From TrEMBL:
GO terms for biological process: dihydrofolate metabolic process; folic acid metabolic process; one-carbon metabolic process; tetrahydrofolate biosynthetic process. It comes from the Bacteria. Key enzyme in folate metabolism. Catalyzes an essential reaction for de novo glycine and purine synthesis, and for DNA precursor synthesis. The lineage of its organism: Bacteria, Pseudomonadati, Bacteroidota, Cytophagia, Cytophagales. Signal peptide: none annotated. It holds the Pfam family DHFR_1. One of its GO terms (cellular component) is cytosol. CDD domains: DHFR (cd00209). It comes from Dyadobacter jiangsuensis. This is Dihydrofolate reductase. It catalyses: (6S)-5,6,7,8-tetrahydrofolate + NADP(+) = 7,8-dihydrofolate + NADPH + H(+). Keywords: NADP, One-carbon metabolism, Oxidoreductase.
């Protein structure tokens, strides 16, 4: 079975994914969706994103991309110096989720089979951005809209994009 790589991210309409190494929004229902989609799966994540105060970690397996790994790894944590080493470490997996940050998303976008991409319907300030991608390369397989309410300041759409096969 071929390793499938899935990007999972939330971005604002102006492509912001972070501010000061944190999410610029609090969307509990989007986090519940994230947990459901990624349950029991391995993650590839950059070091800064892994260390973010609001980071979500896999209870199964986390591969952290860093040029400076610690001497002692935490349980369920492995380290890789780059994308190719991270993929090699996870070659026995079938589904792997890419959690960012921005440079990891940029490097992984050409390799991803799917994108679970939540669009937060707002223009927000930030210092980390999701890379531009060509919508012609992707098919929108599903989209679930969530309006604002007492727990969600912003409305958002949880989208699943599947990479189109070359013709």
């Amino acid at each position: 079975m071929k390793l499938q790589l899935y990007i999972i991210a939330a971005m604002s309409e102006n492509h912001v994914i972070g501010l000061n190494n944190s999410l610029p929004w609090h969307l509990p229902d989007e986090w519940a969706h994230f947990r459901k989609v990624t349950a029991g799966k391995a993650f590839i994540i950059g070091r800064k994103s892994f260390e973010a105060p609001d980071a979500l970690h896999s209870e199964y397996r986390n591969v952290i991309i860093t040029s400076n790994p610690p001497e002692q790894a935490e349980p369920r944590v492995e380290y890789a110096k780059d994308i190719s080493e991270a993929i090699a470490l996870l070659s026995d997996e079938t589904d792997v989720f890419i959690l960012g940050g921005a440079s990891i998303f940029r490097q992984m976008l050409p390799l991803a089979d799917r994108m679970y991409l939540t669009i937060v319907h707002a223009q927000v300030a930030g210092d980390a951005y999701f890379p531009a991608f060509d919508p012609k390369d992707w098919e929108l397989a599903s989209s679930e809209f969530h309006g604002t309410d007492d727990d969600h300041r912003y409305s958002f759409s949880m989208n699943l994009y599947i990479r189109k096969q070359p013709e």
